[in-house]
Amino acid sequence: MRAFVLLVAFLIGFASPTRAADDVAAVQGVIRSQVEAFGRDDAAAAYSYAAPAIRDLFPQADIFMDMVRRSYAPVYRHRSFEFGEARVSNGIIAQRVHIIDTDGVPWEALYTLELEPDGSVKISGCVLLKAGQAV
Question: Is 2-130 in CATH node 3.90.199.10?
Answer without folding.
Answer: no
